[in-house]
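Write out the bound-state structure for pyridoxal-5'-phosphate.
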Amino acid sequence: MRIVAAMSGGVDSAVAAARAVDAGHDVTGIHLALSRNPRSYRSGARGCCSIEDSNDARRAADALGIPFYVWDMSEEFADTVVDDFVAEYTAGRTPNPCLRCNEKIKFAAVLERALALGFDAVATGHYARLVEGPGGVEMHRSADHGKDQSYVLGVLTQEQLRHSLFPLGDTTKDVVRAEAEQRGLQVARKPDSHDICFIADGDNAGWLAEKLGPRPGAIVDESGAVVGEHDGAYAFTVGQRRGLRLGVPAPDGKPRFVLDIEPVSGTVTVGPRASLAVDALHCVRPLWCAAPPVAGEYTVQLRAHGAEHRAVVRADGDRVEVELLDPADGIAPGQACVVYDGTRVVGSATIDRTSRLARS
Amino acid sequence: MTDAPLAYLDHAATTPMWPEAIDVMTSELARLGNASSLHASGRAARRVVEESRELVAERLGARPSEVVFCSGGTEANNLAIKGLYWARRAQDPSRRRVVFSSIEHHALLDPVTWLAKHEDAEIAMTPVDRSGRVVVEALRAEVEADPSAVAAITTMWANNEMGTIQPIDEVVRIAREHDVPVHSDAVQAAGYVPLDFAASELDAMTVTAHKLGGPVGVGALVIRRELDPVALLHGGGQERDIRSGTIGVALIASFATALDLTVERQAASTARIEALRTRLVEGIRRIVPDAIVNGDPTAGPTHRLPNIAHVTFPGCEGDAMLMLLDAQGVECSTGSACAAGVPQPSHVLLAMGYDEVAARGSLRFSLGHTSTEDDVDRLLAVLPTVHERALRAGVR
Ligand SMILES: Cc1ncc(COP(=O)(O)O)c(C=O)c1O
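---
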């Protein structure tokens, strides 16, 4: 097959590209320039859009003997990922831009361009497994449970999966690093990227504050009494405990958590941990890997690297109702609810609202 | 090692070295001696440099003392524009304006904008017409708005993306009328049109070896004796004390050989290359009827370089076509500069009045002394599929 290997400049995508070459594919390395300002070198925290990363990707492609190009996707990225990120926070939700990027850029804009140009598939260094199943291509959790990235790929449809290749799905990170070393790839010891790639220092709140400016509002308790003030509701996420800077201590002296963010007034509601527990998730914008789930018991994951929860899932057109068998804490609207059947990814939907079921 | 391309159509980026220039380079590399040393080895090295200087001067219509060797086009342009600006401003602090064209290479644009940002220069950019030629009347107006404030004028001899040749005579006339130093970047012109520095009446002119079959890393600023540009590099005082640094004997000797051969064979090779270009352009038009060939259609030393064909493919991205052609062993350029590997729309096409989509959808094919009909035919053989795929991918 003719393959586009998306090469971020990290060790995973370099080894993924190497394995695609070994498998006999005709591989072309592509580095996606996602930042509007790629001239800036960055040290310390790593992302995916510095010049250094682009050079690392190029050197890995050199080592593999494959052609290498940079595709400028910065406009698409700004319009569909960064703008959405800001809009979601403005609306009081907590988005996951990596899912968005996979859905709209890596496996959409890039894949479409690749297919039009005569390629057959896009290979990435994601940790997830693709297997041929009775209903088409199935995506499963990675063999390395600690590194599993199927959550951020839960937005991919059958059409996208059919043109995707995850050569690292069967492998653990340790093996990938050792393999990179053995292959003489200079990125073998490069640290992993963790942060949101377009927020270099990992300070989401600071980045948002710069974009949106101060938008002061009140912090209230569950009774509506004002217990503090803030400079912008976008700095908060449901379930957050740190950085509340409350003036009035809680009556029980226990820590308080963000329970709710009301975007119009900017009011942030806080309360005790017990009030965080929810067991009903009302979700929208479902994206299924193949057929929608039949109503029944599944497991769901509600944030990147989050725990698995047992749940009853009912898909109904463009709405999905998820009932957690055990209540969970700190579920933030805007995050994806990815549905699993065992290790298989069924698909995902975006959490719109959460509630507590009146159960005896 | 990657295999040699099946068709190299990027001679304007760099062109293969003449075998004779490689021979001179390798034999000179084996020579011992610093050209500034006073002993026999030093004198022998110095002799090679001075003979090279004489040859270069002769081939460019200059005097040997006017040839200042340096590392290439970028350095020569920086030296010319910064050096002349600083020198003029030192003589007369009211001279702060630098007049330049909107289609200059980055090796000139960037030093000029740097002067504006850091050295208090006022910059005046002259527009070009739809074929990429400087509008002389606009340049005249810029200068005459306040002639006594102009420190320098610069206009390239031939543009590196379009091949459009600039009205250097008229630019020089305006400069002479107002007694302003005038420079021209002749990097692209030197290989393909006869240059006569004295006859041009320019004050300074940039050439580089690797665009005419010499090595990368050497070039010259040809500059009249009366002009005393402020140096960029200070040190041992080599090259008229304008450009310090131990003299690169082998590079300079090889450069001189390449220039000598190029000029000697220019008339014959120009006709041959122009015929290849016609074959290329006609072939492209046959395959892609809506392709637009940009720049000046007329051949000849006052119109267009014989070796460059700049083509817009409506509905396609130049980057996509470049990649697909590369996969078929056909090498060309989008003609635009890259910031960190991210292709930018060509400032030249934008200056010519094209929109950004057209500016992104173009390729530059450039021929040279080793080009053959096979190179052109190879491009034409793969173009139908490449064009179809690029069209399918569309413009983002
Ligand atoms: C018009 C023009 N000026 C200057 C340069 C830079 O010359 P050099 O590569 O020798 O620094 C180039 C070549 O890229 C050019 O085309």
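---
The interface with chain A takes residues 2, 319-320, 323-324, 326-327, 338-343, 389-390, 392-394, 396 of chain B (CB under 8 Å).
The radius of gyration of chain B is 21 Å.
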